[in-house]
Amino acid sequence: VAQAAYRAVSTLSSPGRGSHKFAFRAAETAYNCREAAAKLFHSDNPENIVFCQNATHALNIAIKSMARAGDTVVTSGYEHNAVTRPLHALGARVVPAEAPLFDRAACLSAFDEALKKGARLCVVNHVSNVFGFIQPVYEIAELCRKRSIPLIIDASQSAGILDINAEALGAAFIAMPGHKGLYGPQGTGLLICSSRPKTLIEGGTGSNSRQPEMPDFLPDRLEAGTHNMPGIAGLKEGLDFINRLGTDRILEHEKKLLRHATNRLRNIRGIKLYASEDEAAQCGVLSIEIEGYAPEEAAMKLSEKGFALRAGLHCAPQAHKTAGTYQKGTLRMSFSVFNTSKEINKLSHALENLDS
C-alpha cells in the first residue's frame, strides 16, 4: 500500500486531465481500484463506486441526497456523528431505533416499529465503532424494501471484514472509509451509489467541460477536482489484499483475537468488558472500563507502554447513551488481520500493571 502510494506521486498525474501517459496511467489505476471494490462488494457497475475523502464525506453526500428538513429519518441507537450531525444540520426529525447492546433480535424489532412512523429514510451503521456490535443490516434492508423506504448503510467498521453484498442489500448508498478495514491510506473513502446523488461540491471533471452544470453520470458527477491518486493507488492494493485473503478469513482471525482478549481481560480485577455472548453479534472491536481510571488516563498510560487504544466517546455519543456509558465513555481496542495473540497477552499484562 505504502509503496503504491509512493510510486503514484512520481508516475501518475490526474485521470481525464491530459493526453499523455501519466494521465492514462492514472485513469487505469482509478478504474482498476473501482473494479477491485466492485468485486469485493458484489457491485455490478464499477462506475457507480465513487472516490471520496473519507466516510464522513461519503455519508454527507448520501444523506444530503436523500433527506430534507422535516423528514422523519430512522437511525440505530449506535450511530456516529458522521450520520447524526448531517441529519441535525438538515433539520431532519431523527427517530432512533434503540435496542440493548448486542441484542440483534431486539434491534430488528425496534427498526420494524420505528419504520412504521412515517419514515422517509433509514440510516444505519453495519457495525458500531464503539462496541463492535454487528447490526442485522440485511434484515433491516428487507424491512425497508417492503415499505419502499430508501436505506443508507454506514459500512465504516465492516468494509473489508464482513461480507457486504451491495446487490443483495439494495441500499440507496453504502459509505465507507479506505483507511480502516480496507487497509488503504488515510484521506480515502468510497460511496457505492444505487440512487441518483446530489452534488456536494462542483468543479472540473475533465468531462462535459462546455456545460455549466456537473455531469449527470457517475462517477464524474461526484468527483470534482483533482483526484487523490496516491490514496487511490494505495487503496487499490488494500482491496486486492482483501480480495486475495477473503473476508471470511479476516473475520475469523478478528473473532479469534476477540475471544482471546475477552478470556484474558475478564480475569483482571476492576475491568468491565462490553463483550457479547453471541459471537454473531460482535466483530473485532472491544470496549472496556477500568475501575479507578478515566478512559483517557488509562489510554495515556498504555501509550507509554507501546499500545494505541482510543478513549472517550469515539465521536459516537448516541452509542454511549444507548449502552449507558455516556458519562465517561470507554477505552476501546480494535483488532486487525495483522494483530496477534502475543500482542493481546502483552496488553493484558500491561493492564494488570497499569501503574508500574
Q: How would you describe this structure to a colleague?
A:
By secondary structure, this protein is of the alpha/beta class. It folds into two domains: 2-245, Type I PLP-dependent aspartate aminotransferase-like (Major domain) (Aspartate Aminotransferase, domain 2), CATH 3.40.640; 247-352, Aspartate Aminotransferase, domain 1, CATH 3.90.1150. 40% of the residues lie in helices and 14% in strands. It contains twelve helices and eleven strands. α4 (81-90) links the parallel β2 (72-76) and β3 (93-97). α3 runs parallel beside α4 (81-90) and α9 (247-265) runs parallel beside α12 (341-352). It is globular and about 70 Å long. The model has no long low-confidence stretch (mean pLDDT 97).
Keywords:
356 residues; alpha/beta; Aspartate Aminotransferase, domain 2; Aspartate Aminotransferase, domain 1; 2 domains; seven-stranded mixed sheet; four-stranded antiparallel sheet
